[in-house]
Design goal:
The structure holds two protein chains of two kinds. Chain A has a two-stranded antiparallel sheet. Chain A has seven helices and two strands, in the order E-H-H-H-H-H-H-H-E. In chain A, 68% of the residues lie in helices and 4% in strands. In chain A, helix 4 runs antiparallel to helix 6. Chain A is mostly helical. Chain B is of the alpha+beta class. Chain B is globular, with a radius of gyration of 23 Å. Classes of the chains: A mainly alpha, B alpha+beta. Chains A and B meet through helix 1, helix 3, helix 4 and helix 6 of A and helix 1, helix 2 and helix 3 of B.
Chain lengths: 163, 306
């Protein structure tokens, strides 16, 4: 790209805020275990798409906000999201060329890692929980990945504007 | 991109430190409060649809419905007023009797209505966020009830919001007594909204299905006399030293929207601005629990229930 291009960042931040809102939205008790990890999905996408602009720091700060809004230990989601975001950032070149099903499988693995870290911290801190209850959100999130990716692709096309 | 690994590692370490500090001490409360204030608008946005729905429901009710509701409320008010007449008499009698026992009065707690803004997503932590914080005089350890019974207590206070733990949280234990005979016990949360356990009662304890459990006021956090749960099942197994007792919370804990924050009478008197949990009360209540001891102990085991 030879001509100067400006990258607008605020739509991405708006996506993250929307994800945050969706993750603290009250849900019926029955649907609660199946609440998708909106913030994690959003972070994975933007880590793959713009790894130089949205890195681990974005993930960490989003994690802190998530911790405060959900009343978990300060640093729990921050730690999990940072660890999870490392992989798409590190391997974005390889992951970008994956076909969609393969990428979905990767997202599944990443979310499993994310939930496992949450589970592990809960266990260490003495918050009772059972591993089986963490799968619901991993599954719904993975199913949501393809449509969400299409949506974010649309957003991404609006990001760059010629100066 | 060489620094990606280093940055990740630094942030991971920072999170770990923050985790440990937050878990061990409460030094990070100021940080939490600052971030909490920053995301307060988000929580308001989240609460908007539910509020809009409530508003629409209120605006859209038919005249007939309103009339019916009005009639029902009138009847209810009449009944409550009748009870209230008795209540004033009882209150003064209670004050008089307590004066004789030289303990402080309990009735006359100050309350304030708070609304639930969010519910913790983790199914194993029954936490709620309510829209009253330090600005409104909320304090850590404050008891929360609703119109029917005890809901929980505040565990973290922010500027405008605070977090409360429900009595059904597995980490929550509540000193209760059986309303019928004053038998004291602890009601422990189970992680199930419909169940509390009373794990520390011996097989011969005088408790049966249908007994009402009220707060005993011991421990100081909860004012005494608020209904908590109704005993739903008592299983006595002679081979075990404790009976298995289950109780169902009076309040539908997963359906509450509005809650009442309580400032106990003593607390309300000393101008609630900021405060630590009311420890001094427990000393004042000692004589009363001692007085009840012989009665509870004197009761013989009854074998009339399963």
């Amino acid at each position: 790209m030879s001509e100067p291009v400006v990258l607008r960042r605020w739509p991405v931040y708006l996506c993250l805020v929307a994800a945050l809102v969706l993750s603290i939205m009250p849900l019926p008790t029955a649907a609660e275990p199946f609440r998708p990890d909106w913030v994690a999905l959003t972070l994975i996408y933007w880590a793959l798409a713009l790894p130089r602009t949205f890195g681990v720091l974005t993930a960490w700060v989003s994690g802190l906000l998530l911790d405060v809004s959900q009343g978990t230990l300060l640093g729990q989601h921050a730690l999990a999201l940072t660890a999870m975001a490392y992989f798409p950032l590190r391997f974005h070149l390889r992951l970008r060329v994956f076909p969609i099903w393969q990428l979905s499988a990767t997202v599944f693995a990443l979310l499993t890692l994310y939930q496992f870290i949450l589970f592990w911290i809960n266990g260490t801190a003495g918050v009772a929980s059972e591993l089986i209850d963490y799968w619901g959100s991993v599954i719904t999130s993975t199913l949501l990945w393809p449509p969400l990716m299409l949506f974010f692709n649309g957003v991404r096309q609006q990001l760059t504007v010629a100066r | 991109m060489r620094s990606l690994g280093a940055r990740t590692l630094a942030l991971l370490l920072l999170s770990l430190v923050s985790l440990v500090v937050d878990h061990r001490e409460n030094h990070l409360d100021a940080v939490r409060r600052t971030i909490g204030t920053a995301i307060y608008p988000l929580q308001v946005i989240v609460a908007l649809p539910a509020e809009a729905l409530g508003w629409a429901r209120e605006t859209g009710v038919s005249r007939a419905d309103l009339q019916r509701e009005n009639n029902r409320l009138k009847a209810e008010r009449l009944a409550i007023r009748a009870k209230l007449q008795q209540m004033t008499a009882l209150e003064s009698e209670n004050a008089r009797l307590r004066l004789m026992l030289q303990t402080t009065t309990r009735v006359g707690d100050r309350v304030r209505v708070g609304e639930i803004m969010a519910v913790n997503a983790n199914p194993y932590r029954h936490d709620i966020v309510i829209d009253k914080g330090r600005q409104h005089g909320a304090y850590e350890g404050q008891a929360i009830i609703d119109a029917t019974g005890v809901v929980g207590q505040i565990i973290k206070v922010g500027s405008f919001t605070s977090e409360a733990m429900l009595i059904s949280d597995p980490d929550h234990a509540l000193p209760v007594e059986v309303n019928r005979n004053g038998l004291r016990s602890i009601a422990v949360g189970t992680g199930d909204y419909d169940r509390l356990d009373l794990p520390y009662l011996p097989n011969n304890a005088d408790i049966r299905q249908g007994d009402l459990l009220v707060t005993s006021g011991l421990g100081g956090a909860f004012p005494a006399g608020y209904p908590v749960a109704e005993v739903s099942a008592v299983t006595r197994n002679p081979t075990e030293s404790f009976a298995t007792i289950r109780a169902k919370p009076i309040t539908a804990l997963n359906q509450v929207r509005e809650v009442l924050l309580i400032w106990p009478a003593e607390k309300a008197a000393e101008t609630v601005a900021e405060g630590d949990t009311g420890a001094p009360e427990s000393a004042a209540r000692e004589p009363d629990s001692a007085a009840r001891e012989p009665e509870a102990a004197a009761r013989e085991p009854e074998a009339d229930d399963e």
